[in-house]
Amino acid sequence: MATAAGKHRKHLEARVMLVACITTELLRQTSPSHSGSFGKVGMKLYHLKRNQSFCPTVNLDKLWTLVSEQTRVNAAKNKTGNAPIIDVV
């Protein structure tokens, strides 16, 4: 008498998937950290480029550190009230 995993199948992938499903179920039951996902999950990204929109934050008290010391001195001497423009984008 043949078992479920030993049956003759036209497509071998069916047996592989069956064994994989059984193994995945055993892993899911025994391991709490196992995700439980099986098969293809999510979109396929061929050339994934991370951090394309990386934009660190700058506090206002650290804003003058982006300007050189000479520019800071000149802005302090300037009595017209104009401050240097700092492009932080």
UniProtKB/TrEMBL annotation:
Origin superkingdom: Eukaryota
Family stated for the protein in its record: Belongs to the universal ribosomal protein uL15 family.
MF (Gene Ontology): structural constituent of ribosome
Source organism: Pteropus alecto (Black flying fox)
UniProt keywords, alphabetically: Hydroxylation, Ribonucleoprotein, Ribosomal protein
Keyword DNA repair in record: no
Name the record gives this protein: Large ribosomal subunit protein uL15
InterPro entries membership: Ribosomal_uL15/eL18_sf (IPR036227)
GO CC list: cytosolic large ribosomal subunit
